[in-house]
Amino acid sequence: MVDTLKHAAVSAADTIHVPAAHVAAEHAEKFEFSHLLAHMQNSKTLEFPGGHIDLPQFPPIHLGSVTIDLSMSKHVFFLLLSALFVAVFAIYAANRNRKNIIPKGIGNLFEIFIVFIRDEVALPNMGPGGLKYLPFLLTLFFFILIMNLLGLIPYGATSTANISVTAALAFVAFIMIQAVAIREQGVAHYLAHLTGGVHWSMWPIMIPVEILGLFTKPFALCIRLFANMNGGHIVLLALIGLVLLFRSVIVAPLSVVFSVGVLMLELFVAFLQAYIFVMLTSLFMGFGMQSEHTEEDAEHSHS
Amino acid sequence: MATEPKEPRPRDDTPGLDHVYRNVAPYLTLGIQLAAAVVFFFLIGWWLDTRLDTSPTFKLIGLFLGFLGGMIKFFRSAAEMSKKDKSL
Q1: A148: which of A49, A99, A270, B71 fits an S-S bond (Cβ 3.0–4.6 Å)?
Q2: Residue A124: enclosing H or E segment and its boundaries?
Q3: For residue range B41-81, what is the model confidence (pLDDT) as tens digits?
Q4: Is residue B17 part of a domain?
Q5: Shortest CB distance from A212 goes to which of B21, B22, B37?
Q6: Under 8 Å CB-to-CB from B12, ≥6 apart: which residues?
Q7: Across the interface, do A287 and B21 touch by the CB < 8 Å criterion?
Q8: Which residues of B touch A208 (CB under 8 A)?
Q9: Predicted pLDDT at A43
Q10: Mean pLDDT across chain A
Q11: Which structural domain range is residue A187 located in?
C-alpha cells in the first residue's frame, strides 16, 4: 500500500513539475518526498538524532517451500521496545502500589487506566465472570497504547501501522474469543452454535458462512487499527508535502498549524484505538460467555 | 476575587461511545460477512470448475449458494436486532 502511495506521489510530482525548467530542483524534491514517505515504511535501519544504525540481520530460514525472514526491522524494534516498556513500568507500578496504600506517581497513572478498563470495559461487556480475563485485556491495551504512542515521538515508528502487527494482535484476540466461548459454553454447545440454528439440510451452506463470520470480526479489528494508525500519518505527510509541492514559504504556516492539529488528533486516536480494540475484543468474548443464557431465554420466549 | 461556584452542568443524555459500540458491534461486520460468503463459495466453485473442467457451472452454483447463505445469515441477524429493539 505504501509502495503504491509512493508511486502515486512520485508520479504526481512528475505531472505537476514536468514543464518546470529547473530539473535539478525537481530531483531534489523527489528525493525529499520519497524520503518523507520512507518514514512510514518499515526499514532495516534505526534512525536517531545524529545518525543511524543498521539493525542486526539474520539469514532467512527455509521451512519446506516457506521462507521466513526473522531479522529485525524498525517496526519489530519498536514492538519489542514497547513490550519492554509495558513490562518494566507495569512491574514497577505494581511494586510501588503494593507499598503505598494511596498510589502516587506512575502507580497512580496505571491505576487510572486499570480501573477504567475494569469498570468501563470488562464489567459491562463480560459481567463479573469476565474479571478473570482482565489481565489479558490490560496487557493488550497497554501494549497497543505504547506502540501507538511510540510512533508519535520524533524518530519513532508506529508498529501498529504495519498490517502484520495488527494481524497478529487480531489473531491473538481471535484465539482468545474462541477459547473463552468454548470454555464457557462447552464444546458441544459451541459446535451447535456454529450451525446457526437452521434446518439440517441447510448445514452445508450455513456452517461455512458461520465459520466465515467468526473470522470477519478479528479481520475488522485488524483493518481498523491498521487503517487508523496509517491514516493520520498519511494526512501529516500530505500536509508537510504541500510545502514541497508549492515550493513557497507562504504555505508553510498553514501546513505547520494543520500538522500540529493533526498530531493532536493522532494523540487522541492513539488512545481511542487502543480502547476500541480492547473494547471490541472484550465484547466478543462477552458474547461467547453469555450466548448460552440469551439462547435459553429465546427458547423460553418461543415456547 | 473569589471564584463563584459553578452551576452544575446538566447531565447530557446522549449515549457515550462505549454504549454506541456495545449496541452496534454485532452488526459492524454484517456486510463483510455477506461479501465473504459469496466470495468463498464462488472460489470453491472456481476450484471445482478447474478440477472438473465444467466452467461455468460450479461458479454459478457457488455464487448462488454463497448469496443464499449470506442472505440467510444477514436476515437472521437483522431479525435478532429488531427483536432486541422491541424488548428494550
Answers
A1: A270
A2: helix A123-126
A3: 999 999 999 999 887 888 999 999 999 988 888 888 888 77
A4: no
A5: B37
A6: none
A7: no
A8: 37, 40-41, 69
A9: 81
A10: 81
A11: 73-294
Interface confidence, given as ipTM, is 0.73
| Residue at A130 is within a domain | yes
Give CB contacts under 8 A, 24+ apart, made by A219-222.
A219/A170, A219/B29, A219/B32, A220/B28, A220/B29, A220/B32, A221/A166, A221/A169, A221/A170, A221/A173, A221/A277, A221/A280, A221/A281, A222/A163, A222/A166, A222/A167, A222/A169, A222/A170
Domain of residue B74 covers: 29-87
pLDDT digits (tens, 9 = 90+) for A149-203: 998 888 888 899 889 999 999 999 999 999 999 988 888 888 888 876 777 787 8
Q: Considering chain A, what percentage of its residues have pLDDT values greater than 70?
A: 83
CA distance A5 to A29: 16
Number of domains in chain A: 1
- Say if A165 falls within a structural domain: yes
pLDDT digits (tens, 9 = 90+) for A33-76: 676 677 777 888 887 888 788 888 877 888 878 888 778 888 89
- Give a yes or no: residue B64 inside a domain: yes
Q: Point out which residues pair with A45 in neighbouring strands.
A: A54
Domain presence at residue A157: yes
Interface test with B, best of A199, A209, A285, A294 (most B CBs within 10 A): A209
Q: How far is B29 from chain A (nearest CA, A)?
A: 6
pTM (2 decimals)? 0.79
Work out whether the CA dihedral B74, A174, A286, A288 comes out positive or negative: positive
Residue B6 in any domain: the answer is no
Is A21 domain-assigned? no
Q: What is the rounded average pLDDT of the residues A242-261? A: 86
Name the domain count of chain B: 1
Cis peptide leading into residue B56 (ω within 30°): yes
CB atoms near residue A255 (< 10 Å): 19
Q: Residue A19 above 50 pLDDT?
A: no
